[in-house]
Amino acid sequence: MNPKTRVTQKTRAVVLLSGGIDSATALYIARRKGYQCDCLTFVYGQRHFREVQCARALARKAGCSIKVLTIALPWKGSSLIDRKIPVPRNTLSGALAQKMIPSTYVPARNTIFLSFALSYAEAIDARAVFIGAHAQDYSGYPDCRIEFFRAFEKVACTGTKAGAGQKRIRIETPLLHLNKSRIISMGRRAGVPFELTWSCYRGGTYPCGSCESCYYRAKGFREAGVKDPLKRGR
Amino acid sequence: MNPKTRVTQKTRAVVLLSGGIDSATALYIARRKGYQCDCLTFVYGQRHFREVQCARALARKAGCSIKVLTIALPWKGSSLIDRKIPVPRNTLSGALAQKMIPSTYVPARNTIFLSFALSYAEAIDARAVFIGAHAQDYSGYPDCRIEFFRAFEKVACTGTKAGAGQKRIRIETPLLHLNKSRIISMGRRAGVPFELTWSCYRGGTYPCGSCESCYYRAKGFREAGVKDPLKRGR
Predict the structure, then answer these.
(1) Residue ranges of domains in chain B, CATH in brackets
(2) Less Cβ around it within 10 Å: N or C end of chain A?
């Protein structure tokens, strides 16, 4: 965290909490840094609605408020929100492995999420917005790149009343340079209740175990030497 | 317009159409430049819902599609969406005249609108997003400043699949350096049906004639030497 932001007990932060491992870890990091956290999650027509329930449970467990915003996009173009496009199975020749943008990419999703978080942060006089984007996503999603977050921070500086002064709203990406296993290790140290997190892109009762997201979750836990408390699909 | 973008009959643009004079003029400018326009408007809890009806009528008249998105913000902090805060009457000592941010400022509103427009543009393979922000707003709203739009264009470059190449999505602000009377003159030349536009911040049947927005509309028409075809309140 930038030393210029003095965090007191009453310094507020908005945390984008999707219900996955990364955003849950970002929430626990923000709390550790001393922020009073207000979470924000979205219903945007995703197949994996289960993650919204997980976000609620995570916020409750962490003693934070949570707002759930519905923003159904009337355009498609992503297998996460368009049921006509199949969610890809993970294979080593998958889109991520080939450094291609996966079909699960939702156009400008992080820009939309960050915009709402910025608006919320300004309305409640928060000093930071936390987002759990990380290096592994970097290879696939354009809105997970460091240049993108830098550009968005400039938007936060120039496009809000809070502006660039003492009241500036920072875009905090504490996981940006970490891979999944390091995030899991960090999350475990910070006390993240992994049993309340959800990763699977499909909307079943149990994780499918075969989509890109399940693959990276399993790999991450394995490499971190931590047991995933979430039951697998059968 | 930047000469790098070659506009053909099939080049698409997303136009943020609020139903006011500025966005209507931006729409007619985009059409003149040869873009096939898809409009986007928002229901965000504003008092002046009438502008949404005007946006629909304007799009219909211009032969363009329009999508209406509902994004009720669960936080307040602006007299445009919070009915407990009065809409200020215009006086020469008003917020705009004092270079203060008016109470009608909605936190990060343009950031949210542009984010959706960017997502829509990427989904339909459009090359530009048009927004009718202008110099007069510049003095009051932080998200109408040139630095803000520059920063957002960087977000559009870095945060989308379209990226920075030939498929780059430009943020077009054709009115940024104009005042209301010049916009009205330009709009008249472009054939904007001003009788279908709405400016008043209050939600009545007729414009109130006393809010900041009515004041600048009347001043703009007067200075442009054009008769406002919209009936005033009585």
Answers:
(1) 12-224 (3.40.50.620)
(2) C
